[in-house]
Structures are given as C-alpha cells and as structure tokens.
Amino acid sequence: MQSHLVGALYLENRLATHVFAPERIAVLRVLASQAAISLENARLYSDLKNTEAQLQASLDEMQMHVSLIENSSDFIGYLPTKGRDGYINAGGRRLVGIELDADVSEVQIGDLRPAQEDQRYVEEILTALVRDGRWTGERNLRHFKTNAPIPVLQNLFYIIDKETGEKKGIASICKDITEQQQAEEALRKAQADLAQVAQRTTMGQFAASIAHELSQPLMTIVTSAETCLLRLEKDRPEIEKARSAAKRIVKDGHRASEVIRSVRALLKSTAPGVDEFDANQAIRDVVDLTRTRIRQQSIVLDLSLASTATVVGDRGQLQQVLLNLMSNAIDAMTEVMDRKRLLRVETQEVEPGRLTIRVEDSGTGVDPDKSNQIYDAFFTTKPEGMGMGLAICRSIVEVHGGRLWVEQRRPNGSIFSYDSNFYRPPKMNIGPERYIFRLIRVEW
Q: 70-176 has which CATH code?
C-alpha cells in the first residue's frame, strides 16, 4: 500500500540531551501513524457529511421537479425507445381520460392521437422529429373514454444520452388550447357581429340615397310604360315609339336591379368568402350608392379606374371598407366652404403586379397627434360617431392578410393604404402577386 503525507509531527527539546533515543523515536513513529489515521478519518467523515448534504439537496430538488411535473395541468409524458416503462403525469391522465392509478406501461404514441391524424403524424410530425430531433405545433390528442379530439399545443422531442448520443426515449409536453380556441372563435363571431352592426349603421346613413336611386328608375319605368300604352292605344299604333319606350323600361329595370343587388351584397351576413372579382366594378357599385349624397353635398366626383383590376377576397367586406371610407370622406367635407369639395376614386397599376386604389377628398385631414388612436375601438372625433369604423376596416383588412396604415397628405387630407393578395386575369398567365389599396380621406 502506498502511503501519502497527511501532516507533519514536529518535536523540539532544549532542556536535556539524548531525549530522542531510538526506542523513543519508534514510539513517536507509532503515535504519528495513529494521528495520521485519525486525521484521515476526520477528513473522510467531513467529506461524507458534505456528500450526504449534496445528495439530500439533489434529492430535494428532484422531488420538487417531480412534484412540479406531477401537479402540472399540462400533459407531460415519456416513452422509452426500448421497453415499455412509459410515464404520463396526473395532469396528462386527466386531460386524455386515463385513471390516475391506471397502468400506462402499454400505452403507445399511436394510442394518444385520433385515427384521422395518422397520415399527418407520419408525413409531417415524425419526419420533422427524425430530422430535427423535435417538433412543435398544434394538433389533436384523443380522449380515451369518448374518443373526442382534444386540441393541444405540443412540444415533442427526443431524450438524448449526453455521453453516447443515444436516443433514450420520446418526451411530449402538451398544453390544452380548447378554451383558447373557443375564445378565439367567440372573438371572431363577436367581431363579425360587430362588423354587421357597423355595416348596417353605415347603410342606414345611405337609406335616403338608396331610396332616391331606386325611385328614379321606378318613376321612369312608370312613365315609359304609360307612354308605351298611349302609343299602342292610338287608332294607328306607333309601334316604333312604343318599342323605344319598352326598351327604356328594360334599361331602367336593370338599373333598379343593380341598385338592389349592390345593397344585398353589402348587407349579406354570410361568412367571408375568397372569390375572384373585378375591383373596378365593385367600386362602381359603391359609388352608385353614394351618388345622391355626393350631389346633395355639391361634391365633384372624379372616377378614374384602370383597365385591369381583378382581385381575390370577399367582395362584400372589401366594399364595406370602401363604403365606410367614402362615407367619412363625404362627412369630412361637410363644413368645407373655402375650396372645391373633391372626391376622387382612382385605381392605377403603378408597377407590374401592383395595383393602387385611391379615395381622395379635400377635407381637413387627421390630427397627427391622434393618428395612432384612430384605429382604436370606440375612439371617434365625431359627436355622433361610434368609433368603430376604422377599427372594423382594419379588422377586415387583416383578415384578408393585409394591413391598413395612414400617412399625411399635403396640403389637406390623409393617405390610408391597404395591401392584400391579388391575381391578374388568367389570360395574363401570371401567378399571385401583392395588391395595394391606397385609401385617402381626411376626417373621422
């Protein structure tokens, strides 16, 4: 056995000679050896106490972690790559309908998902897990008792041995997002309902205009019908003049039908659709609904539309945005007396694949200090306003994958820009591009 130094025994004598005789030195060697053993035992005992304290601290920390995992409301599970000693915490068992004292050693990953998700698991989740070592996303778990799908946000990953790099097992952490999805659905419904209320409120402002737009073709139809009958009742019926009157009846009937169609499109309460439509025609329909108010306010209307304006989205909702903005533009010019009241609606392809729609007026503009507040719900500068117009416009724009922002216009007015996806007509053989709306108006 190899010895090692643990200390030094120092003796000094100045009083007598021959004190450290050989026999006494031998005794001192024995005493020194015993002292070394005692010192080593003391050190080992101290190390043992420190080790026990460290083990106890590690055990306490492990028990704390176990308690946190076991009492978590999230699903936390583990399945080894070899063997069947799987684990699911209490929160996970409650989530998927497994009894707390049930044996889960035989539970496999496939048992936790609905059958309709098998293909997605193989093609997407497992592929990413093998490639990256983890996968995160939304999916469904299966309730063991009811087979009902449970929407969760899952983090799935391998447990790797640090020394060997071997995959020891697969761990899963899932957060139940049922309430979140329900809240999001309720919010979407509330936003849709609120948009419908605001839509009908806006349309209410145009009731007189719509009545006037309908009354004109209807009165013309009555007049033309009377003229037609008079021409036919003569002793010598005037067939050609009667035919002209009948053509006017057909023309005005179509005009009245177009007004009604435009109103129905704006007031429909169906879910947003994604259809290809002519933005220019949609703009014309909205402009037709505002012509009477425009005439009553002595506003000069300048309509300049590009030859190509095919877009993809919900026609009614995009018309609602335009109607709201045009309504505000008309209101903004009510008090304007010192300059021409101008309302310009323009579409222009500023560059290949980019279309601009402008609604411009000569009102007083948006206060720069309030430019960040105008999108807030219930914020309004109008005494009779609800403060929902721009908030709903922005919501519609964002649903269509775009954004609505404001810039100052000189000398008067503001520029509201809207972008969303759009397509050129199929004959152009061009894929999806970006579609830019520029909506300019001046007071809210």
A: 3.30.450.20
